[in-house]
């Protein structure tokens, strides 16, 4: 199946943005500008435990989003992760196509670009590479980039580190919700909890004011932890406005996802976010989605509901949640 890649389109040197990328007027960045001068919460993991639980609780409740510093992942490892991802996207097009995925046939892992299903539908200015990283029994190394040869070693190292940080943050969030510290990880499958890697490549765009890198969405995951390159573009929605997230070197961009919203019975909201693109520069981001296994049952946690606070969400398997979200059915 022939797929037009955004990176290939961008390298031919377009003067104008092709019609399928031109967003409807109200969605265009030029008509939906972010609020200036307000910064998202930045949380250092090195602060005292009690203060940490409280600030994370407040950030999850108010924003569903925060930046994490002093997380213990070596900056050189983040740099290496960015190098191997960048090298993959610099391969000749025919090499990258060997990894093409086909979501229409249920093959999600690999190299991808969203396509329009009809003339009216708009697409995003982004190509990506998506694969599972954890747990080891579900990882298919054959779908990971074979080039550069260090891709696997670097990504496995990053997986180990990001898993540790994810576990720490899930413990802190459990405590902030007044739960036992292992509660969220256990509900998300314990050792079967999954980590998925999505590398986004947003090439320079001829008319960035008319396009979006990713359209407004919340993540299906429990939580998402992302590192971008130095080109800003992410915006998060709060109280009826977009807020631009400035680049902060080596910080982790933490998002509350749909599963935590359900488990917390809406105490924490899955953050709506979008990304913008740049006229001259390539933006890249490495998003790690932490999800339950497909068979896990997810609903408001019993400790968080009672007669005064009844369940606001139904309980269903993660597979059912995914099916409904992909097909835009009510949850
Ligand atoms: O690149 C970003 O900052 C956001 C990416 C994102 O939201 C996604 O891949 O779902």
TrEMBL record:
<dbReference type="GO" id="GO:0051213">
    <property type="term" value="F:dioxygenase activity"/>
</dbReference>
<protein>
    <submittedName>
        <fullName>Flavonol synthase 1-like</fullName>
    </submittedName>
</protein>
<keyword id="KW-0479">Metal-binding</keyword>
<keyword id="KW-0408">Iron</keyword>
<keyword id="KW-0847">Vitamin C</keyword>
<dbReference type="Pfam" id="PF03171">
    <property type="entry name" value="2OG-FeII_Oxy"/>
</dbReference>
<feature type="domain" description="Fe2OG dioxygenase">
    <location>
        <begin position="193"/>
        <end position="292"/>
    </location>
</feature>
<dbReference type="GO" id="GO:0046872">
    <property type="term" value="F:metal ion binding"/>
</dbReference>
<dbReference type="GO" id="GO:0031418">
    <property type="term" value="F:L-ascorbic acid binding"/>
</dbReference>
<keyword id="KW-0223">Dioxygenase</keyword>
<dbReference type="InterPro" id="IPR050295">
    <property type="entry name" value="Plant_2OG-oxidoreductases"/>
</dbReference>
<dbReference type="InterPro" id="IPR005123">
    <property type="entry name" value="Oxoglu/Fe-dep_dioxygenase_dom"/>
</dbReference>
<dbReference type="InterPro" id="IPR027443">
    <property type="entry name" value="IPNS-like_sf"/>
</dbReference>
<keyword id="KW-0560">Oxidoreductase</keyword>
<dbReference type="InterPro" id="IPR026992">
    <property type="entry name" value="DIOX_N"/>
</dbReference>
<dbReference type="GO" id="GO:0046148">
    <property type="term" value="P:pigment biosynthetic process"/>
</dbReference>
<dbReference type="InterPro" id="IPR044861">
    <property type="entry name" value="IPNS-like_FE2OG_OXY"/>
</dbReference>
<dbReference type="Pfam" id="PF14226">
    <property type="entry name" value="DIOX_N"/>
</dbReference>
<keyword id="KW-0284">Flavonoid biosynthesis</keyword>
<comment type="similarity">
    <text>Belongs to the iron/ascorbate-dependent oxidoreductase family.</text>
</comment>
<dbReference type="GO" id="GO:0009813">
    <property type="term" value="P:flavonoid biosynthetic process"/>
</dbReference>
């Amino acid at each position: 199946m022939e797929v037009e890649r955004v990176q290939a389109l961008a390298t031919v040197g377009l003067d104008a943005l092709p019609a399928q990328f031109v967003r409807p007027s109200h969605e265009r960045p030029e008509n939906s500008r972010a609020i200036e001068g307000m910064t998202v919460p930045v949380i250092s993991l090195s602060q005292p435990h009690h203060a940490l639980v409280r600030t994370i609780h407040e950030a999850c409740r108010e924003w569903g989003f925060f930046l994490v510093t002093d997380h213990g992942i070596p900056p050189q490892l983040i740099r290496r992760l960015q190098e191997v991802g960048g090298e993959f996207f610099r391969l000749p097009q025919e090499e990258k196509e060997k990894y093409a995925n086909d979501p229409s046939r249920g093959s999600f892992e690999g190299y991808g670009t969203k396509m329009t299903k009809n003339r009216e539908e708009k697409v995003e200015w982004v190509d990506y590479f998506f694969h599972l990283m954890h747990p080891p029994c579900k990882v298919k190394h054959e779908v990971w980039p074979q080039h550069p040869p260090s891709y696997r070693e670097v990504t496995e190292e990053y997986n180990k580190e990001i898993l540790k940080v994810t576990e720490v943050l899930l413990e802190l969030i459990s405590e902030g919700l007044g739960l036992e510290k292992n509660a969220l990880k256990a509900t998300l499958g314990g050792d079967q909890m999954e980590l998925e890697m999505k590398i986004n490549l947003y090439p320079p765009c001829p008319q960035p004011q008319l396009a979006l890198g990713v359209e407004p969405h919340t993540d299906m995951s429990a939580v998402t932890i992302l590192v971008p390159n130095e080109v800003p573009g992410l915006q998060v929605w709060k109280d009826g406005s977009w807020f631009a997230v400035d680049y902060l070197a080596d910080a982790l961009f933490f998002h509350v996802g749909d599963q935590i919203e359900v488990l917390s019975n809406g105490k924490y909201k899955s953050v709506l976010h979008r990304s913008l693109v740049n006229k001259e520069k390539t933006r890249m981001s490495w998003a790690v989605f932490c999800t339950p296994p497909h068979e896990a049952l997810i609903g408001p946690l019993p400790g968080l509901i009672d007669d005064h606070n009844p369940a606001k969400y139904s309980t269903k398997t993660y597979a059912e949640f995914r099916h409904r979200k992909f097909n835009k059915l009510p949850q």
